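@channel sequence for tomorrow's demo:
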Amino acid sequence: MRIAFSVENNNGLNSQTSHHFGRCPYFILIDVENDQVKNVTGITNPFFAAHGPGQVPNFIRQQGADVMLSGGMGGRAVQFFEQLEIKPVTGAAGTVQDTLNRYLSGELTGAKPCAESQKHHH
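C-alpha cells (generated this afternoon):
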C-alpha cells in the first residue's frame, strides 16, 4: 500500500503534516507492507502556488497512492479522490510518523471536509 501525506517540509518521517493538501509544498509517499515502512520518498507539489479542480488528486494518483492523508481537504477534493479510488483521510497532525502510526492503528479512518472548504468553495 502506498500512502501519500501532505507536508510542510521534506524531512521524511519527521516531516510536519500540512493542514491543506492542495497548497502544501511537498508530499511524502510511504510504501507500507504488513504495517512496516518499506520506502519513504519526498516530492515537490507542482501545484503548490495554484491549482485547478482535480489537478492535485490526479497528481497523487500518478504517484500510485492508495491513501491520501492530510490535516484537511475540501468536499470536492474528497469526491475527486474517491472517484480515483484513492482513500481520503483527514485529521493528520504532527509528524508523518505520528500520523502514520495513528492511521495504521485505526485511529484515523475517513475524510471530513474542512470548514474552510465551505468558505473558499473547495
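heads up for whoever presents: The first strand starts at residue 2 and ends at 7.
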